[in-house]
Amino acid sequence: MTAQDLADTLRGRLIVSCQAPPGDPMRETATLVRLALAAVAGGGSAIRANEPEVVAAISEAVDLPVIGLWKDGDTGVYITPTVRHALAIVEAGAAVVAADATDRPRPDGSTFEELVTAVHAAGALVMADVSTLAEGVAAAAQGADFVSTTLSGYVPGTPQRTGPDLDLVTSLSGSVSVPVVAEGRINTPEEAAEALARGAHSVVVGTAITAPTALTSRFVAGLARP
Ligand SMILES: CC(=O)N[C@H](C=O)[C@@H](O)[C@H](O)[C@H](O)COP(=O)(O)O
């Protein structure tokens, strides 16, 4: 699939992230496949998924593009940190590899541009997960096919919010020519629509759709407030 074909497929559409953190009862491949099938039934247009085994199983079960990543660790560069991780995700069947494109050092000493070159050579596309405007501009210049706001709020120095970083959506949309994906803490359909109004090409929603443990905790915390 070319970047243009995928951009056409995803314009104005919802991408559902079907992931579960380590230790979560939902972290089981068959369960995550069921979540992906529910996302299809509900009208989602693509699935974002973590780890080769899960990416392979969802790619097999679902007739939608899969944006794959491989999280390794939870500090520093942990979303598809190396070229090896990226190529394993292509091998698993992902149409797109999502990878950290922040300006932090990567554990294998590679550059983001090298990862892009390797993924393109293997026949897949790249979504750059960024935390700032400068990172998004750099990632697009290095060949990323999509730029996503995934990491805003998760890198020291970026704004901490309970909702999405819509200002980053706006600034990226005005600055890069590749499609901008709004991702991270989009909690309501209204926020998703606002992201599109701010120039996002597509919207990724994870927790608000596919994470019952986190959602339960939010309600429990709400009840505990005085
Ligand atoms: C920062 C990071 O590691 N983000 C990850 C990226 O794949 C996932 O844990 C998020 O669930 C995903 O970005 C969707 O965001 P939200 O669950 O907030 O809708």
TrEMBL record:
What reaction does this enzyme carry out catalytically? an N-acyl-D-glucosamine 6-phosphate = an N-acyl-D-mannosamine 6-phosphate
SUPFAM superfamilies (UniProt xref): Ribulose-phoshate binding barrel
Q: Does the keyword Isomerase apply?
A: yes
Reply yes or no: does the keyword Transferase apply: no
**Which keywords fit this entry according to its UniProt record?**
Carbohydrate metabolism, Isomerase
Short name of one Pfam family: NanE
Q: Which pathway, metabolic or otherwise, does it act in?
A: Amino-sugar metabolism; N-acetylneuraminate degradation; D-fructose 6-phosphate from N-acetylneuraminate: step 3/5
- For this protein, the Enzyme Commission number is 5.1.3.9
Q: Which Gene3D superfamilies match?
A: Aldolase class I (3.20.20.70)
Q: Which GO terms describe its molecular function?
A: N-acylglucosamine-6-phosphate 2-epimerase activity
This molecule's function is given as: Converts N-acetylmannosamine-6-phosphate (ManNAc-6-P) to N-acetylglucosamine-6-phosphate (GlcNAc-6-P).
Q: Which family does it belong to?
A: Belongs to the NanE family.
This one is known as: Putative N-acetylmannosamine-6-phosphate 2-epimerase
The source organism is Streptomyces atroolivaceus
